[in-house]
Design goal:
Order of helices and strands: EEEEEE
Strand order of the largest sheet: 1-6-5-4
Shape: elongated
Structural class: mainly beta
Largest sheet: 4 strands, antiparallel
Number of strands: 6
Oligomer: single chain
């Protein structure tokens, strides 16, 4: 799991494709409460990755990418 610190209510996150290893960027709204869980296609290999964004105990967002078939 990759931990990224954000200071804006909306920002771009970076996630690594679980199939080809390429870094991807994605805009997210950090004002949404709770866990955000969605599927995003890799910009290079086009395979779907499950992206999970949730805040830790310090209210800092944590980003995790998983294969979509998990």
């Amino acid at each position: 799991m990759e931990r990224i610190k954000y200071s804006h209510p909306d920002d771009r996150i970076v996630w690594v494709c679980q199939y080809c290893g390429i870094h991807n960027e994605l805009w997210i709204d950090l004002t949404i409460e709770g866990k955000q869980d969605f599927v995003e296609d890799c910009r290079i290999c086009c395979r779907p990755n499950r992206i999970i964004v949730q805040k830790d105990e310090d209210e800092q967002p944590m980003v995790e990418a998983r294969p979509s078939d998990e």
